[in-house]
Specification:
alpha+beta; 3 helices; single chain; 6 strands; about 160 residues; 6-stranded mixed β-sheet
Length: about 160
């Protein structure tokens, strides 16, 4: 009997992005689980989260699934009653072995201790690879810079 293995293909990638959008909506409600399902659970997964680490030992970039999952849970806990408003894809490139997307993500949520729903926007870059027949996020970097900044904005005093 022949067993067919599922393969992640270039044609599947847009479906993965749609699943990611739905998961991002859940994240804005405080639920990290759907996003976590789309991430690699391997040791080389990384996450550069704009909200800071879940704990001081993690630092500005979470490495490995244990740190990434803790950081996602921490970040999701800062949002509630939110929704994804839209995503502007700046660039997307997909091959059989690797894919990336650069985008501006716009959402609305109650953030931190605030009781009002606030708009938020992130510039995000994600890298994906096929794992066990599915596309998985292996790196995500996000920050609140969505417009050009003056050169002086990078000076640290």
């Amino acid at each position: 009997m022949e067993v067919l293995l599922k393969m992640a293909t270039v044609d599947d990638f847009d479906e993965v992005l749609e699943r990611l959008r739905l998961a991002m909506g859940e994240f804005q409600k405080g639920n990290p689980k759907p996003i976590q399902e789309l991430f690699s659970h391997r040791d080389d997964v990384t996450l550069a989260n704009p909200l800071g680490p879940a704990s001081p030992e993690i630092g500005p970039v979470a490495h490995g699934w244990e740190q990434v999952s803790k950081t996602q849970e921490h970040a999701a806990s800062t949002n509630r009653d939110g929704e994804l408003v839209g995503v502007e894809v700046i660039e997307k490139h997909v091959t059989d072995e690797l894919a990336y997307v650069v985008e501006i993500e716009r959402a609305r949520a109650k953030i931190g201790a605030r009781e009002d729903i606030t708009p938020l926007a992130l510039r995000a870059t994600m890298i994906f690879r096929p794992e066990d027949g599915e596309w998985k996020v292996v790196h995500r970097q996000a920050d609140p810079i969505t417009t050009s900044q003056p050169a002086e904005s990078v000076i640290q005093e």
